[in-house]
Structure formats: C-alpha cells, structure tokens
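Hey team,

Filing this mostly as a record. A colleague (T.K.) asked me to run one chain through the structure pipeline before their review meeting, and I want the input and output archived in the tracker in case anyone asks later how it was produced. No errors, nothing strange. Just documentation.

Input sequence:
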Amino acid sequence: MLITACYIVKNEEKTLPRSIESLQGNFDELIVVDTGSTDKTVEVAKKYGASVYDYVWQGDFSAARNYALANAQGDWILFFDADEYYESGGSVRAYLEYLQHSGTDIDAVIINLYNLDSPQLPAMKVIRMFRNHPSIRYAGAVHEQIVRQDGHLHTLLAEQFKFMHTGYAIEAMPIKLRRNLDLIEADIARNGERDSYYYYLAECHFGLQHYPQALEYIAKALESPVKYPYELANYYHILLESMRQCNYPAKEMEKICNIAISLFPDMPEFYGEQGMIVSSMGRLEEALKLFSKCIACYHSPQRQNNHYGYFDDKVMEIVDTRITQIHELLEGGR
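Output structure:
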C-alpha cells in the first residue's frame, strides 16, 4: 500500500519543514503544489524529496488541492497545511494499512487538530486523510471540503491522533478573512449563491466585525439544510455575539442561549453567556448557578471531547470578575 502526502503552499519556507518531518515514515510519496512562492519554499520541498508542481493560482483552493490529487499515486492521501504538524498517537501508516485491508467502507479519517496558541480549547475536527479515489475530491473555492461525488462520504474519527496547528498571527486575520470573503463573493458572482456558503459568509463578516451581515448569513445558515455538524456550536457563538453587538434585547438573546445549552449541554461557553445575560436582567442568584455550571464544564476533562469552544483562561477571568461583582451586590443588599 502506498501513501501520498500532499501540500499546497505559498511562501511556507519556515513552516513546511516541521510539518513534513513530523510525518516522516508515514508516506511514500510527497507532492507539493506551489501557487507562487517568492521565498525558498520550492527549494525546501525538493530537499525533502518532493515532486513540486508549479500552479497558477485561480482564486480557488479546491482547484489547487485537486490538482495535487490528480498527480498522486498513493492508495491513501495525507493532505495537510504547511502550518500543521503531527504530534502523537501512534503510527499513521499502520492505521491506514489496517483500514486498507480490513474491508471497511471508510473513505476519510477525521483527526483532532489543536491550536498551538490556545491549547485550552477543544480540538477542531477535520479531515486530513482519505482514500485516493477519482470521486473523492475537494469542493468549494474557500473552506474547501472533501466530498464523494458519486455518493455519501463515509468518515471515521481517529481520536488517538493529535495534530497541531501553529495558528495565525492576530494582525494577519483581517487580511485572511477579507481574502476569503472576496473569493466567496467572486464564486457567488460566477455560480450563484449556495447554501453551503452561508456559514462561511457569516464567519467572514463576524471576524471582520460586520455584525449585521453576520446576523443575516448565520440566520440563513441555521435555516439551511446544509450544515457543518462540527461547527454547529460556532453558529450560536456568532449569532449571540452579533446580537450583542447589534444591541438586541436580553430576552431575545436568552432564548437563543437556551437553545444552545439544550444542544450543547457540556459546553461551558453557553452557560457563561447565559449567566452574563440573566445577570444583566437582575437575576443574580440564577446567574451564579449558571456561572458555577460554566466553571465545572470548563475544568471537566470531558471538555476535550467537545467539537468546538471559544472560552479560554482570559474569558474565565471575566466570569470570575462578574461572580465577585454579583456577590458584592448580594451582600450589599442584605
């Protein structure tokens, strides 16, 4: 059985070595598609024995990734970004060999991807390994997804593997989000608006602090039959924060929080959000109970099983401050 590792890159001379070295021994072929690097990325890739293909960027991430797949010879594909690397979990090769020879119908493997800059947060669940089959390709100009063009894509979550993402510089995020928004809007201009883009449009507008537009598209995303299950909690994060920024009444936000808590009862975030909302409405004792639940969920080992999270230690300091304020108010009223 052969395994091909693939990358699409541009100016990744600093991050690519770590990623490739972390996967050494787990692939037989290395393909790097370069979309216009002006640094030493191509030289770095060739040093590791990669077959490097020059690719004229077309404003479509799926097209670039699928170009790499068209040149891959392996039975299985490892497709990572240059700023991602393997940390632990055993042999990837042995795992894929097991899937290859076990007779399973699994097409793709979901892995846990942790953000190096925010280790407290739950891992993102992403597909980074899949069979090399003509019908299994990427779709979407931005936030590209692996799909099976001739039917349902059968996936499996490999909990044992831990991969790391080195993250984006904060100052670079607006540029990245603006680029993604421009690419999505260009694709919509060519092909029309699709349900699959509503969530990503909301995400871009939210990150760019365009809160009315974020509200518009996250509402469409929630009504759409096309949803991304591992991202669903973020739908409610975007909705709640955008409502807050647009000065929606606390009562309306409370209703959304109740829905989110019912869907994600193990997440600390929505108990914390609800605590802030009801405390602003004067329901202080109720807020304390919600904050207590928030803290318990935050420190639970089970939190790493959640598909999404956005509370970190800094946010929990805000929760602690609000708890102190509430106790002072309650003591002062006695």
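Quick notes for T.K.: The first strand starts at residue 3 and ends at 9. The chain has a mean pLDDT of 94.
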